[in-house]
Write a structure and sequence with these properties.
Layout lengths: L4 E3 L2 E3 L3 E3 L8 H9 L4 E3 L16 E4 L2 E4 L11 H4 L7 E5 L4 H11 L5 E5 L10 H4 L2 H12 L5 E5 L6 H10 L4 E4 L3 E3 L2 E2 L4 E2 L6 E4 L4 H14 L4 E4 L5 H10 L1 E6 L1 H5 L3 H9 L17
Parallel strand pairs: 3-4, 3-16, 4-7, 7-8, 8-9, 9-10, 10-15, 15-16
Antiparallel strand pairs: 1-2, 5-6, 6-14, 11-14, 12-13
The chain binds ligand RRO.
Length: 291
């Protein structure tokens, strides 16, 4: 293990984080992932009202990844009690709202428990939330500024479903973000030919997993070139090679989501390769592909 890593105002135990959404709904599962070698963990996104989520099917596997339309299920303010046993641990609380006021309200509940906030302005299938916010630079700036007022570091998770992701990254930076996380899921859908209708209950959803890795690498590459604050890579990472590639594109740390669904020991497996004695220090490869 590499020892403490400082990224975006947070001290992590290694360069690998649990991505938002996967196994981040209870304090016990977050703790388990830390024990299994995650250097930090991001919670499931929490919003202003308790919410049961979309009707099923909410998640399907495809040949190249996973398609989900969970629909932002979350216990809202009640999530505070899940975090109490995790005091002092590298926990990043993912939050969403429909405007800067809602983001600020939700952040207020967790300001004493979060090592950082990750602003989810990028869910691809959330009416009024998510990508509706994350595609407008001015709104991203204002949501970031509102949450940054608590003095807790703010990471902003971006959607790839835009023409130019750097415009949004620069807006987050101007709003006072400490890091940018790229990317959330890519809009997609499947249709059952037998049933002649969309498979997901919500019809459309977000694609994660291997298929989106090249999209994520390109977004990290562009953000690294355009922004000053650290970029954290996310999207389809499942091997140590993927982590190294993300870092060469410019990521200072990497989040892993879909691959955890296949194997909860993925963090340990990657760390063993990433921190092998004869390997290069991962910090020394950040952005080298731009040279
Ligand atoms: O809950 C979801 O449906 C969801 C969210 Br909040 C998100 O940010 N990204 C995603 O693919 N699904």
């Amino acid at each position: 293990q590499p020892g403490d890593i400082d990224v975006g105002g947070v001290t992590l135990r290694n360069h690998l984080l649990l991505a938002a959404g996967v196994l981040g709904t209870t304090g016990a599962s977050l703790q388990r992932l830390l024990k299994l070698g995650a250097g930090g963990v991001v919670t499931k996104s929490i919003g202003p009202e308790p919410n049961a989520g979309h009707h099923g099917p909410c998640l399907i596997r495809t040949e190249c990844g996973v398609l989900n339309a969970m629909g932002l299920p979350n216990p809202s303010k009640n999530f505070v009690e899940e975090l109490a046993p995790l005091e002092g641990e590298p926990v990043i609380v993912s939050i969403f709202g429909k405007d800067p006021e809602e983001f600020k309200e939700v952040a207020g509940w967790f300001a004493e428990h979060a090592k950082a906030f990750e602003l989810n302005v990028s869910c691809p299938h959330a009416a009024g939330y998510g990508a509706a916010i994350g595609t407008d630079p001015e709104t991203v700036l204002e949501c970031t500024r509102a949450v940054a007022s608590y003095g807790v570091p703010v990471w902003v998770k971006l959607t790839p479903n835009v023409t130019d992701i750097t415009t949004i990254g620069l807006a987050a930076e101007k709003g006072g973000a400490s890091a940018i996380v790229a990317i959330n899921t890519v809009r997609g859908m499947r249709i059952s030919t037998a049933m002649r209708r969309p498979v997901l209950g919500n019809r459309t959803g977000g694609l994660s997993g291997k298929a989106i890795f090249p999209i994520a690498v390109k977004c990290v590459w562009d953000l690294y070139a355009a922004c000053t604050i650290p970029v954290i890579g996310c999207g389809g990472v499942s091997t140590a090679e993927d982590v190294i590639e993300m870092m060469m594109a410019g990521a200072q740390a990497v989040e892993i989501g879909t691959a955890v669904m296949d194997d909860v020991r993925v963090f340990d497996g990657i760390a063993q390769k990433l921190y092998a004695k004869d390997g290069a220090d991962p910090a020394s490869i950040v952005g080298v592909a731009h040279d």
